[in-house]
Amino acid sequence: MVATLGFVGLGTMGGRMARRLLDAGHAVVGWNRTPAKAKPLVDRGLRLADSPRAVAEAAEVVFSMVTDPAALRGVALGEDGIVAGLRPGAVYVDMSTVSPAATREVGERVRARGAAMLDAPVSGSISTLEQGQLAIMVGGDPAVLERVRPYLLAIGPTITHVGPLGLAVAMKLAINLGLGIQMVAFSEAVLLAEKAGIAREAAVDALLKSVAASPMLKYRGPFVLKMPEAAWASAQLMEKDLQLALDLGREAGVPLPTTALASALYTATRAAGLAAQDMAAVFDVLARLGGLRESPKA
Amino acid sequence: MVATLGFVGLGTMGGRMARRLLDAGHAVVGWNRTPAKAKPLVDRGLRLADSPRAVAEAAEVVFSMVTDPAALRGVALGEDGIVAGLRPGAVYVDMSTVSPAATREVGERVRARGAAMLDAPVSGSISTLEQGQLAIMVGGDPAVLERVRPYLLAIGPTITHVGPLGLAVAMKLAINLGLGIQMVAFSEAVLLAEKAGIAREAAVDALLKSVAASPMLKYRGPFVLKMPEAAWASAQLMEKDLQLALDLGREAGVPLPTTALASALYTATRAAGLAAQDMAAVFDVLARLGGLRESPKA
Amino acid sequence: MVATLGFVGLGTMGGRMARRLLDAGHAVVGWNRTPAKAKPLVDRGLRLADSPRAVAEAAEVVFSMVTDPAALRGVALGEDGIVAGLRPGAVYVDMSTVSPAATREVGERVRARGAAMLDAPVSGSISTLEQGQLAIMVGGDPAVLERVRPYLLAIGPTITHVGPLGLAVAMKLAINLGLGIQMVAFSEAVLLAEKAGIAREAAVDALLKSVAASPMLKYRGPFVLKMPEAAWASAQLMEKDLQLALDLGREAGVPLPTTALASALYTATRAAGLAAQDMAAVFDVLARLGGLRESPKA
Amino acid sequence: MVATLGFVGLGTMGGRMARRLLDAGHAVVGWNRTPAKAKPLVDRGLRLADSPRAVAEAAEVVFSMVTDPAALRGVALGEDGIVAGLRPGAVYVDMSTVSPAATREVGERVRARGAAMLDAPVSGSISTLEQGQLAIMVGGDPAVLERVRPYLLAIGPTITHVGPLGLAVAMKLAINLGLGIQMVAFSEAVLLAEKAGIAREAAVDALLKSVAASPMLKYRGPFVLKMPEAAWASAQLMEKDLQLALDLGREAGVPLPTTALASALYTATRAAGLAAQDMAAVFDVLARLGGLRESPKA
Lengths: 298, 298, 298, 298
Description:
Four copies of one chain form a homotetramer.
Chain A: E1 4-8, H1 12-23, E2 27-31, H2 39-43, E3 47-48, H3 52-58, E4 61-64, H4 69-76, H5 82-85, E5 91-94, H6 100-112, E6 116-119, E7 122-123, H7 126-130, E8 135-139, H8 142-155, E9 158-163, H9 167-196, H10 200-209, H11 215-220, H12 235-252, H13 257-271, H14 282-289
Parallel strand pairs in A: 1-2, 1-4, 2-3, 4-5, 5-6, 8-9
Antiparallel strand pairs in A: 7-8
Helix pairs in contact in A: 9-10, 9-12, 9-13, 9-14, 12-13, 13-14
């Protein structure tokens, strides 16, 4: 079933998602804060609209992929926002990692327009996405999910319904806090081994052979030996996710002491000028604290 | 090549190791603080000696597996200790997770007797061991390792030489701090998700499908839904390992902030009366902090 | 010089401040979310207005004292807010502990109306205020401060100009993070001493005689022996202040690891049902973690 | 009552204590690891002995002041140690900040010799001592304390009996963890204020006027503006005290999360090459983390 779909936010992740929708044969109307960046997509048939609202006016289903709750409010609300353009009966799927509070705030406006909203954050990196292996968690009405499932499948093959609107984002934040802390723990382990007399390479190797080696550590752990040219997920993005997790924790009344400490270390990563580096750069903060050399940069 | 081997410390792990040596056809002389516990091994042919020293006097290669640096000094040093009984040219392999400092202290005495020492801590649980899948890291002279490799292979199939004496134990502590922190991070993630409105089972499921799911979390994560009857590795043991990691860090001059915080949480686990539970019981400490129910106990 | 002053937010602190202004002979127009609570002030001559805006319309100088940035925006902005009622040339003095960002946001609207704003958070407790000993830090134009100094002096005798608008609030948050952490450190010290075998009373006594005994600890430390009936500053308020400090830290790019950890402990205090207790109740969270008895409640 | 007293450990603090005993008219026999450093005391009448044991053989009451539990065992135990030389009925007063475990271990040997031991750690800096204002906490038999009280009064005027042997040291560690954390909290507060736009000097000033200003902060806080030439108490000493507090906490089963985190920061201070600086140098570690300039060094 070919449809006219909208996509707001055509950055690193969003652009690749829109491309997969185009490749699946759908008509895609898009919007990006910096339109020039969407040129390759336009070459493949994407039609650029003037505003998020115009995207929504043209589409049956609208997707968005932005960086944080403020950006979500920016594209979704206001006179030129997505909500203002949604057709009755349309579906709005936000794929960003934002906050349950922002998601629900937008969701209420969507419902007031007679449309429906889902939150559908994704798990995985750019390469997972390009290989068509992305996992998508979905919050919202299951019947609405069924209506958009074919389009989501064009983006990624694994779709898990988590609960009502906002809970997919909550689950995503919970997952990401674990990733952020794991990278800190891995760094402390490498540095302890190194300072005890084991070569950094050998320490990384031993850790990645151990039962601590999560899939994330398997790809990101070696970054402490050589940082990639482009961040898979930046330190700044992880700092933001940890902040959102802490905000949600405070709202819900659950203390997250280790997350709080890790959050300070990613802020230190940004303060050290490494905000745009892969989040593995938190290693450098800990290396400096221990008087050890930082990770070699690409 | 069948040999007469010694084994000091026939507890949960040590006993199973000695059994594998017996099963491989070796003569094994053993010692345990509580001799009665070694009954099943005696039934399979192990000969009990009166002291660690007597074990060493009877064997070409002596193994030990005890709980901490104090216990290592207890069985290795002194008039009745292993070192006092070592034959010239013998090899002493300590498989405990202790400290590089304790290992080297014993190692010097061993060398003074004209024998050689290796540290050979293991990675993996009882079931890994029983399935013959244990990974062994070894520190010490590579030539000495070659001499005892056949016996180590009877215990576990994967042997990695890490460096000079003491470094295998250092690497083990580095790995274990990662495991201790991962369990804390996993707990914070589950509790955040739960308090945000996601069922605990669903949260565990989503986390174990994510890129954060290390092999350790794959087997231990579900413990927060139902704690096992017997600890795979107790909270008290993890507290001890984190303390040893912190001590090594201080000695080496490398700060380990997240390890330090996790250490306090495992001490809290012990203070809560859960010392003998699996280390996954640290979840309960965090659950109480957030006003959530603890993990169901077997 | 007797003037007509406005006061928005007549709670525990705000009410007592308004009373001091009345006692100094000024005419005071006030507003409170729950008007009934202002009865004692009305008995002393305060005139209640219908809205924050009406307060501003009636006064030369308007004060406000509310709990957090959201409450500040609630009383200051919008159709019925203070800003909408400010006369040209009027001065608006916010005495709340909010955030520099919220202060500046309101400040811009105030300037747009041709009025001026100061942030003037206070240091000290209810009893300090009642004894006329309150210290006030002020941010904003020094010339504007001179115009309202007489009224501020009626509230408290010590006035320190910190810098441009917003910096007094920033300084206040910095001070309060120190108070929040000190109470945690004091709790850890008492509990360590107690578990080592020293009576809690003796431990408190020794700490309060030591060089660690800040004025805050001198009055709050004994609360772990007997919590006061009414909070001097509640655990929830401290949790809020630490959150604001952390938010400011993230905004400014300065990591605050100890503040982050303390913040989690105050969230745990709230999760334990002690939100309305004095912030000294963080002691109970740590006492429980160590398996020790909580502070006796009034 | 003039007596022959022994003093082992004539360093920065110990030397000044011995001098006060000499000034009070007592005969003092002393020992120092580096005898040359005791020259000024010898000039004032102190007699140097060949070993700690020889000191004890010559004195009715022996004092010691050393840096850590290992140093205490070094001077107290063994063939040439204090215990071996104690006369029956003598009193041994250790004034070091060590650990209750080490104190009790030595105490048992002292009792076995028919002598008595007290632990008597002191609160205060070199200048407090020189002004005759030192506070002394004492653990052990109160009757024994009465016998040595006149000599202790020559060292400092405030003597508080805390409980049985070892508890004075425990109390001292509890006090010191509070000092270590306060300096960290103060640093975070200064850095937050500074990064928010307040001059460092103004921030220090505001903090030292606030209710957070403990006597310790009053003298040490200004060090972040200019570090003293000589440490009042070095970062390394504070790291050691925090480690002893954490060890005691683990032994006693009380988690100390904030102490654990602070401990990592003092280890980082040492890793940054600032071990011998005043403990206020922990400020530099946090300043670097936030990308701010370090404290000016003398």
